[in-house]
Protein 1
Amino acid sequence: MGPYASLNLAHHVGDEDSAVGTNRGIVADAVRGPVVFMRPAHGVAVAYLDESYLAGREPPVADVLITTVRGLSVATLAADCVPLLVHDAESGAVAAVHVGREGLLRGVVDTAVAAIMEARHGGVRQESVTFSIGPAICGRCYEVSSEVRAEVTARYPLARSTTRWATPALDLPQAVAGRLAHLGFDRVVRHRRCTFEEPRLFSYRRDRLTGRQAGVVSCDGPPA
């Protein structure tokens, strides 16, 4: 109810644990199997998930969850940051990535790409990898100081933006898409709904006290 309505999936935002557990159960039912929900730290740590996570093992703190375990799903939590999902059709590997401003600066997109390559012990063909950029705060709404904008755009020029009210801003989804293109990946789906503008989505920038939605990807294993 209240700030946590509409399927809050995060335990760390003040919602009742039982309600979050129920909501996570709904997601698990929807994907027909166990889901490992991320515990992000706005960094570049990678967690490789083995079969032990099928039984509900608690995930480590990480901003990239990756698995090749058939039947296991991984989920990234966000309420303005960029949820990035990855699938390699050759190996069956999937990854859920949390991309915030700090993670972007530290190279979490590159880290996620390297993790997918490592999952098949020798690299992947770029055309076999698909990325999905989920709803996040857009460049018209993500106001930052001019110093922060300069710091981020020095590395990611496509992140430069201006708010609807004419102040410095960052477009993190655009920066993620641009970085993937620079790395040679062109199978990228971008969902352009803005969390700040869309009342049905959780937004920390808009509401402060709020839940978290999730991007979920399921591993179906390598092709037969």
Note: Residues 1-32 form one domain.
Protein 2
Amino acid sequence: MHIAIEGMDGSGKTSTAQKVAEILGFDFIEKPLHLITDSNNHFENYMNVISNVNKMDPDFRARFYGLGNYLASKKAKKIDIVTDRHLVSNYYWNCVDDEHYFNMLVNECGVPDITFVLKVSADERKRRIAKRNLNDPDLRRNVFDDSCYEKMKSFLEIYHMNYVFIDADNKNLNEVVQEIVEVIKDNNTLTNSDNV
């Protein structure tokens, strides 16, 4: 089974994905390409690579992160995984007008069994990031806009993905994780849903 946890920076994706994986006994995958650039859970080589990749044009970035999407999807055919970001994030950040590439990528990877999008307001995300690190470069980027969720939802709908938007604005980590685990355990809820 492949569970993807999506959302904007500051939404709690990584902590949520780690905890869900731990509770379910699944493997947690944060940066799939790290598996071929580093070892022993260090990200030094990978972080050096992406600092350069993120300066490239969106088509190049889409293909780079697409390789990570592909590796995660191949891993999910062998074991149960929870990924911190997957296809939705790649599309959100890197699709400008090359829909053809994303058609091919989804065809190659397939889609996660279910995708959870953690929905947190721009103001709350900014507050969380500042609390975590006042020098975080995201605080200087133009990433605090609530319209991001419409682009994510449009991608999920286009590719008929099972998804649930979780309003995580006023919930702590354990509350968000509990909601996700309950949805996963109740197979009847594996259908599109804007808010839980």
Note: Residues 75 and 81 are 8 Å apart (CA to CA).
Protein 3
Amino acid sequence: MALTFDAPSENKAVLETGPAFTPRFDEKGLITAVVTDARDGELLMVAYMNAEALALTIETGVAHYYSRSRKGLWKKGESSGNLQTVQEIRTDCDQDAVWLKVSVAGHDATCHTGRRSCFYRKVGVEEGKATVTITDNHRHFDPATVYSKN
């Protein structure tokens, strides 16, 4: 039997302090998922989940997301081997976002570029223009090799 979620309460106090997990999906049926490394707290990625992905994540303990570009369910690490095992899931005060603390298998990398985190660039300003600078250029795996298997 698949896990289901009740509709969020309209009562703010119940939503914020009640015992029911009632995620508030947006108009596209998605909820934001912030993902950090359970070991050291590093921000690894931000993704989206639909009800099916969230339920599968809770039921299996392996992170599943909804790919907006592919318009479908996505088991993180299924092709790269960098599966995310969920250690803890939290929700924010109004239950419209979740925070996953995960352990990453395989190459201990989350980003499809081969880096540990998807947040490997720092935003700055140069001559009045917004710029990005790479702050982590260490590749834990070669994406061309890992993803050529598919």
Note: The chain has three helices and eight strands.
